[in-house]
Design brief:
This is ABC-2 type transport system ATP-binding protein. InterPro entries: AAA+_ATPase (IPR003593), ABC_transporter-like_ATP-bd (IPR003439), ABC_transporter-like_CS (IPR017871), ABC_Transporter_VariousFunc (IPR051782), P-loop_NTPase (IPR027417). Helix content is 33%, strand content 27%. By secondary structure, the chain is of the alpha/beta class. The strands form two sheets. Strands 6-7-8-3-9-10 form a six-stranded mixed β-sheet, sandwiched between helices. The chain has a four-stranded antiparallel β-sheet with strand order 2-1-4-5, with helices on one face. A hairpin with a 2-residue loop joins strand 1 and strand 2 (14-24). Helix 2 (91-102) runs parallel beside helix 4 (131-142). The longest helix has 16 residues, at 161-176. Bound molecules: adenosine-5'-triphosphate.
Length: 231
């Protein structure tokens, strides 16, 4: 379970996230949406301990997200929105590097390379990978750990339609295994296909927090349901 209690965040005295309270239940898949600059990545970075909230508290499966504590770090796997890859390493070496860093088993690397369709190109340096290929390596990296919570910041960014489809299948399979999932996206059809709940942020405030099936009763699709609420 992910729990946010009155979490706010300011940068240089400007409030960017206003007292946000919500939770994600075990096994739930929550989509984080909102306009550019709304605060999605900031929320995700606070969830993962990269940013410290200005006030309020966050816990992951009961463990406080705080610089002074370590237990919460074992609760989640994370795919950042822009990940640094040592450019001189090949795709295979990058995953081996992350496996070592996370204490994961290197034997999983081949399977993950196959899962993200990069096994044939595993010896190529990541710096020559396309944006979508780098994104798939970042996605594979987040699958090295079998933590109960999986947090993905714009995972479909740069993916072609086939890989968006595959990513949805993989996320749904992980959801069926009982993982608690949070992902951010601008693609409402992805939300419709895989999320249980939508949290829509506008200017750092919660605008909508509702189950996807309930939202879909308000329109033929999520886009229609959401834009009716905007008007
Ligand atoms: N480290 C930082 N220092 C100062 N301001 C920041 C910092 N990180 C984020 N912000 C500001 O906080 C606001 C929210 O940014 P955030 O990256 O969370 O938005 P987002 O919803 O993820 O946007 P996008 O959809 O464009 O990726 C923006 O106004 C941004 O400029």
């Amino acid at each position: 379970m992910i729990d946010f209690q009155n979490v706010a965040k300011s940068f240089q005295k400007t409030n960017r996230i206003e007292a946000l309270t919500f939770s994600v239940q075990p096994g739930e898949c929550l989509a984080l949406c909102g306009g550019n600059g709304a605060g999605k990545s900031t929320i995700i970075k606070m969830m993962t301990g990269i940013y410290t909230p200005s006030s309020g508290s966050i816990s992951l499966n009961g463990f406080n997200v705080s610089k002074k504590e370590n237990q919460y770090k074992k609760q989640f796997a994370y795919m950042p929105d822009n990940i640094y890859f040592p450019p001189s390493l090949s795709g295979e070496e990058v995953l081996q590097y992350f496996a070592d860093l996370q204490g994961a088993n290197r034997s999983e690397v081949d399977d993950l390379l196959r899962l993200v369709g990069l096994y044939e190109e595993r010896k190529k340096k990541v710096k020559v990978y396309s944006k979508g290929m780098q994104q798939r390596i970042a996605f594979a990296q987040s699958l090295l750990s079998d933590s109960p919570i999986w947090i993905l910041d714009e995972p479909t960014n740069g993916l072609d339609p086939y890989w968006v489809h595959r990513l949805k299948e993989i996320v749904l399979a992980k959801k069926a295994e009982g993982k608690t999932i949070v992902f951010s996206t601008h693609i409402l059809s992805v939300v419709e296909d895989i999320a249980d709940t939508l949290l829509f942020i506008q200017d750092g405030k919660m605008f909508i927090h509702e189950s996807v099936p309930c939202l879909l009763e308000k329109g033929n699709n999520l886009e229609e349901a959401l834009f009716q609420q905007y008007q």
